[in-house]
C-alpha cells in the first residue's frame, strides 16, 4: 500500500450481537498495538445507508490509525444474514485478506438478551415467546453455522477466530492469548482489568405512552432530530418514562424454548465441525445439557 493510500481495517469483529462484542471492542482499544475506530459499529458493509456514504467516508474512520499493528472495527450486523445480505461480497471486495473474530454465546441466552435489549430500546413490545418465534432475526442471528458458512465461501477458515462469551468470562487469560496471537499483536499484554460493556441486566424499558410519543428520542436514530429535553429525559432512569422489567416477562416459556432448541440443533451440529481444535464452550459439547437460560443473563 502506498503512502497516499487510505488505510482500511485488517480485522473485523463480526458478531454476534449480545455476545460480548462491546467487551472485545473496549479490550482491543486499550491494546497499545491496536487501533479501533469510533463509532464501534460503523456498519459500513451491511447497512445500505452507511454504504452509500462511500469508501472515503469509511476510510476516514481509520485516518488516525498511524503505525498500529492491527486496525479493526466491530459491527454485529456483519453476521446477520439474510437481513444484511451483501456484507460478505462488499467486505471481501474491499479488503483482500481480512481476519474475522466471531464471538458467540449460548444461542438461547443470546436471543433472550437481544429481546431484553429490544424492550429497553423501545423497539420490542411483544411477549418474549411471541417475539422469539415470530421474528426470524432472533433465531437467524443465533444460527452461528449459517452465518459462519457465508463467510467461509470467501475467507479461509484459518483467518477466522471463533470465541465464546462464556470462555471470555471464565478463562479470560486463555482467550486473550488466543485473540492477541491471532491478530499478530503482543499476546503478553493485559489490561488493568477486563472491561465489561453494554450489559443489559438492569436496563429499564420505556413506558407505553413514552414509547409512542418519543420514539425518535428512544431510538437515538442517526438521522432523527431529537429535542435536547427529550434525549435527556430518555437517557434518564426517571420512573415517569421508564419501568423495571419483571422476571416474568423475561422468562422464556418451556414449549418455546424446546421448539427453538430443535430449530437450532442442526446448526449447532455444523458449528461443532467448524470449531476446530480450540476448546469449545460447554454449550457446544457433543452431548450438551438442555439449555437453561439464567435469570440474570445480560
Would you write up a description of this structure?
By secondary structure, the chain is of the alpha/beta class. The chain has a single domain, classed as P-loop containing nucleotide triphosphate hydrolases (Rossmann fold, 3-Layer(aba) Sandwich). It is built from 14 helices and 7 strands. Helix 8 (144-152) packs parallel to helix 14.
Task: Please tag this protein with its features.
298 residues, alpha/beta, 5-stranded parallel sheet, 7 strands, Rossmann fold, 42% helix, globular, 9% strand
Strand coverage percent: 5-15%
Radius of gyration: 20 Å
As a percent range, the share of helical residues equals 40-55%
Oligomer: single chain
CATH superfamily: P-loop containing nucleotide triphosphate hydrolases
**Major β-sheet profile:** 5 strands, parallel
Low-confidence spans:
294-298
Query: From the coordinates shown, what is the CATH architecture?
Result: 3-Layer(aba) Sandwich
CATH class: Alpha Beta
Q: Return the domain count.
A: 1
- Secondary structure class reads alpha/beta
Helix and strand run: EHEHHEHEHHHHEHHEHHHEH
Overall 3D shape:
globular
Number of strands: 7
The CATH topology assignment is Rossmann fold
Q: Give the helix tally.
A: 14
In the sheet with the most strands, the strands line up as 2-3-1-4-5
Summarize the structure.
It is built from 14 helices and 7 strands. It has 298 residues and is α/β, with parallel strands linked by helices. The chain has one domain (11-201, 265-284): P-loop containing nucleotide triphosphate hydrolases (Rossmann fold), CATH 3.40.50.
Amino acid at each position: 500500500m502506498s503512502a497516499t493510500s487510505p488505510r482500511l481495517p485488517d480485522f473485523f469483529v463480526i458478531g454476534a450481537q449480545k455476545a460480548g462484542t462491546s467487551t472485545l471492542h473496549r479490550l482491543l482499544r486499550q491494546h497499545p498495538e491496536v487501533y479501533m475506530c469510533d463509532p464501534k459499529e460503523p456498519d459500513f458493509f451491511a447497512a445500505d445507508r452507511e454504504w452509500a456514504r462511500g469508501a472515503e467516508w469509511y476510510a476516514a474512520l481509520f485516518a488516525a490509525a498511524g503505525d498500529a499493528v492491527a486496525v479493526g472495527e466491530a459491527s454485529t450486523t456483519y453476521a446477520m444474514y439474510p437481513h444484511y445480505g451483501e456484507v460478505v461480497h462488499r467486505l471481501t471486495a474491499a479488503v483482500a485478506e481480512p481476519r474475522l473474530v466471531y464471538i458467540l454465546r449460548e444461542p438461547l441466552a443470546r436471543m433472550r438478551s437481544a429481546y431484553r435489549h429490544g424492550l429497553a430500546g423501545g423497539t420490542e413490545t411483544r411477549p418474549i415467546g411471541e417475539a422469539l418465534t415470530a421474528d426470524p432475526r432472533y433465531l437467524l442471528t443465533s444460527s452461528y453455522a449459517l452465518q459462519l458458512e457465508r463467510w467461509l465461501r470467501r475467507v479461509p477458515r484459518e483467518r477466522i477466530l471463533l470465541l465464546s462469551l462464556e470462555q471470555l468470562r471464565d478463562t479470560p487469560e486463555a482467550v486473550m492469548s488466543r485473540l492477541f496471537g491471532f491478530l499478530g499483536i503482543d499476546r503478553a499484554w493485559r489490561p488493568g482489568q477486563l472491561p465489561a460493556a453494554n450489559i443489559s441486566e438492569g436496563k429499564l424499558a420505556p413506558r407505553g405512552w413514552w414509547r409512542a410519543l418519543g420514539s425518535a428520542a428512544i431510538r437515538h436514530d442517526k438521522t432523527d432530530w431529537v429535542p435536547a429535553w427529550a434525549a435527556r429525559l430518555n437517557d434518564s432512569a426517571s420512573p415517569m418514562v421508564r419501568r423495571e422489567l419483571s422476571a416474568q416477562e423475561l422468562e422464556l416459556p418451556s414449549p418455546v424454548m424446546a421448539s427453538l432448541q430443535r430449530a437450532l440443533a442442526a446448526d449447532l451440529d455444523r458449528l461443532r465441525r467448524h470449531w476446530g481444535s480450540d476448546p469449545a464452550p460447554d454449550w457446544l459439547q457433543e452431548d450438551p445439557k438442555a439449555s437453561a437460560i439464567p435469570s440474570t443473563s445480560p
